[in-house]
Request: fold
Amino acid sequence: MKRSNRLAWMSAIALAAIVLLNLFVAPNNTKLNTGSTYNRAPDGYGAWYAFMQHQGISIKRWQKPFSDLQPKNSPVTLLQISGYQRQTTLYSQEREWVEKGNTLVILGAGARVTEAEFSTLQKSPQGDIKIDTRRRYQKADSKEINLGDRFGAVVWQKNYKQGKVIFSTTPYLAANAYQDYLSNFKYLASLVSEKNNTVFVDEYIHGYKDADVRKKESEGDLSSFFAKTPLFPIIIQVGILLSVLIWAQNRRFGKPVALETPVVDNSEAYIQALAGVLQKADTTDFVVEMVGRQEQLQLQKALGLGQIPLEPQALINFWIQKTGATPAELDAVLKLQSRKQPISERDLLSWLGKWRIIRNS
Reply:
């Protein structure tokens, strides 16, 4: 297989893997599913819904927009379990619906966090109700509070003409996590069935829709579904990348140019490595001895004295005779290298500088 074809296949496999990971590994929207009666997780309400059916209470799942909920004969109680802190003020459409004599129960209403204990047991006719939240609503009148303590209301209600709204600061009032607290299940059951209304649980807010609603909102066919999911932009990006890849394989910008391998100077590399080792070992005396010997031999060669190291005084005498210069600088560098003791880096640089001056002269 040619290199270009192999590269194309590897790229296609990588892109396919990215798509599959986005489909099966990407996290779900847990907030949307919180409070759904289809949810069997601890934050779901599947167990409470089954409890209501077992008690013989008429309860149904509502999977249409709120605007479609228009009772004709008897009043209706709609239970909404929000996955986020919902405001306590009603929308105009909700207010008009409640004023007609219907009941709206909202679990997960917005309230501020107080100094209350996170886990408390609240007294009620159905028994002790376990509450796990520090949020309390502090603007409710004492007559409106159904469940609460000195920090504020946990469950309260507001009347709107012939109907009412019941709020709860916790969305987990009777969630699956509280199956061992039957009083929580009974308490929520008493709230929604207080007037013997027809009870609906809003599943539309959790993304569940009837077939006619999906068709009306253009979600009935597969293409419409993909067009409204994150998968659609992924497919577009994959298509663009594949197009660029195919174009690149069939139309090169020129012949490949081989990179030149830099030539390594082994001597310089060795010197640099040795210098680094000597610096870390702090062996300046060794450096002075080795460099000083070579500098002295170079000086003797320049003076015509051969390659056998002379005594310092003999070299100084020849230096004076040949150059007529003062012996102070040469005497200083020769004395330093004869000491054979470590010196500071600053003194080492100064010593090397003096040898450079002697060479130049």
